[in-house]
Design goal:
This protein has about 110 residues and is mainly α. Helices cover about 40% and strands about 0% of the residues. It is built from four helices and no strands. Helix 2 runs antiparallel to helix 3. The longest helix is centred in the first third of the chain and has 13 residues. About 10% of the residues have low confidence.
């Protein structure tokens, strides 16, 4: 999935409007800036994953960072990370581990 498509899905998730679609150019890489103003800039993806499913996986740390930035309890962070992983074993490991992402400060007030 290219970054433009992922950004469109993130916009839809954050806005709560699943049917809303950002406009793009014919090659699909450019997104209408007026619809992306409310989306925070995401940190760069990790490039040092050893693909072994280790305890301190860089993807788990990346998801924790995204959870803080997106402030949605981790749902969007889990979706973003799992879309980027192609190895089925690592994907299943991360799926289980990402369920344990600690909530943000706002989520603990209940």
């Amino acid at each position: 999935m290219n970054s433009a498509t992922l950004r469109i899905r993130l916009i839809s998730h954050l806005s709560g409007l699943g049917s809303r679609r950002a406009s793009s150019s014919s090659n699909g890489d450019d997104i209408d800036a007026t619809k992306t103003d409310n989306v925070p800039e995401l940190p760069p993806e990790p490039t040092t994953c050893c693909m072994s499913g280790c305890q301190n996986c860089v993807w788990i740390q990346y998801a924790a960072e995204l959870t803080k930035i997106l402030d949605d309890g981790g749902d969007a962070a889990r979706e973003i990370v799992l879309q980027k992983i192609t190895d089925p074993s690592l994907k299943m490991f991360l799926k289980m581990e990402l369920q344990n992402i600690p909530p943000t400060k706002d989520d603990t007030s209940t």
